[in-house]
Amino acid sequence: MFRTSRLNTIAVALVAIFTLASQTAEAQFKPFKVKGWGNGPEGLSLVPFDAAPYTMSGTATHLGKYSGFGIAYVTDGDSGPIPSGAAFNGAFSGGFVFVAANGHRLVCEHPGTFAVYPDGEGRFYAIFDAIFTPADLTIGETTYASTGKFMNVSGSFRMIATTESFDIDFDNFVTSAFDLSWVGEGSLGFPKN
Predict the structure, then answer these.
(1) What pLDDT shows up at residue 160?
(2) Where are the beta strands (DSSP E) in the chain?
């Protein structure tokens, strides 16, 4: 009886291992690279959870030329130690909707950290470091989901965004509008058909 119970335990364990392996094999992971340029037309509010819109366009693997829009907001999360040379740093979150030329959408959330540096001319610039992960995004009363070949995609990619110089209104805790560029890479898992 002990032998049968032990064989059943081994059989159950093997079924679990093969099930997990087949689920992982169902996604085909492919490298993903992206670059783009855009702006934060309202600047960035330094008040926690006050959403600031931004737009970008550029090129990305599996998207080709894209345009998109998103929101970012400062959080009260852990931003780590202040980097050398930075005036201050913080944590942020938000999301972005990449729209390919064919209309397919890749929707991602993006928590991360940022640091603000003096530019040496009395203004500031920021560097944002975020991990983008496919997920639904709600802006106002509208929820966006990935569509087309990006439905049910998994994986993540790291994005580094750098702004041009901006002013900070310390009385109202907001920056002036700014332009920015970003680059990123990682991998996306596409479901096997």
Answers:
(1) 98
(2) 27-40, 52-60, 64-75, 88-100, 105-109, 112-118, 124-134, 137-139, 142-144, 154-163, 168-169, 174-175, 178-191
